[in-house]
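Title: Prediction job returns without error message
Component: structure pipeline
Severity: low
Priority: P3
Assignee: unassigned

Description:
Job completed but the reporter wants confirmation the result is attached to the right record. Sequence as submitted:
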Amino acid sequence: QYGKPAVVVPAIEDALEEALTLAGDEALVLVAGSIFIAAGARHSWYNRKNEPNKGINPVRSKLTNADNLNE
């Protein structure tokens, strides 16, 4: 009745890519679990191979782009 169906992806790197794909461009992906899951997701994020903007910090990127609009 609520939410979305769950998808199981055993590898953290693959799970992050799947979550980002399912989320699309306008959604947020929240990684929850142990500190090891969070560290693995962070490592995977900064070492992404399927994105042209690999390794960017999305928050800093948006802030930087917003700052450039005021110039």
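Comment from assignee: result matches the submitted record. The two ends are 47 Å apart (CA to CA).
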